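Sample intake sheet
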Amino acid sequence: MNLSEKNPLELKLSELLERIKPADETVFAEAQAHWDGISKPLRGLGLLETLVSRIAALTGNVDVHIDKRAVLVLCADNGVVCEGVTQSDASITAAVAGELLRGTTSVCNMARAARAEVIPVDMGMLSAVPGVRDCHIARGTGNIAVEEAMTRQQALEAILCGIELVRECKEDGVELIATGEMGIGNTTTSSAVASVLLNLPVETVTGRGAGLSDAGLLRKKAVIAQAVEVNKPNADDALDVLHKLGGFDIAGMTGIFLGGALYRVPVLIDGLISSIAALIAYRLCPNANCAMLASHCSAEPAAQMILNELGLRASIFADLKLGEGTGAVCLIPLLDLALSVYHDAAAFRESGIEQYELQEGDIR
């Protein structure tokens, strides 16, 4: 197909993706050298040192700061809920979105402790919630057990919206973004996407989500298998998989990860849903992983598999499965602690201690 004949939104996305550059390995090495000059055991802070160095490599600045941070919580409803794959009904999505706005949910309390602003975004809830940022593409997706979740055009709109959210954050001075989501049924859509993109059986990648019974889990697996059979997504086309099996929250977060890479703002991956979005972003543009920082490894079965695919390692293993971005927010205080050492700890040359030598097997 001639570029001029392409869908205008697809062409726009392609042009943005071409602008995404990989991390600056020279700056990464400079940041690592700074860590190695601090008077402590080499790589003593392990993955936390690597995360700081990756932020430096993304921004192109060895002087790393994350003073202003935001938690973007994307809210959307999923038509597949009518298949009985969840413990709660779709009304919970809007209810929790309202609590996010009022600052009363788990992530809101955790974000206050982490000095982060929570921004709830309506990407496609069945019911609008006054005051929640309105970016809705449609009022819920289709039921993937019998039809496509959304059109390819809608998927593109949602991705571009996510990119735009990052641009706005960057203009507002935000230096770190945590991804969050709220949407009943989104572990079902995420597991469906994971099964196709990872080329693994539905049974291998599907978990209980928000507390399904044994019977409920069997039902969920059967519905996902049916969805894959009905929609026949092309595993080699991440956008095709997204629009046939995904959700508006996943599509918007895909844009956030792409936007992070484009505008050089680090983005924290939360649990299963955001990691699926990160995987789609990576499939669309491999360079996009330069902006992705893994926070924790979700209790959902596909979580570690996705991180492996992305070449990322989680810093937190605590069987977290709350959602909303809570796992991502957990990493922020750890980054603050690491940066306190990075910026203020004495160097070997200042302490009079002979500098250690890096040994084989040290984390790199």
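Comment: The two ends are 43 Å apart (CA to CA). The CA atoms of residues 213 and 256 lie 33 Å apart.
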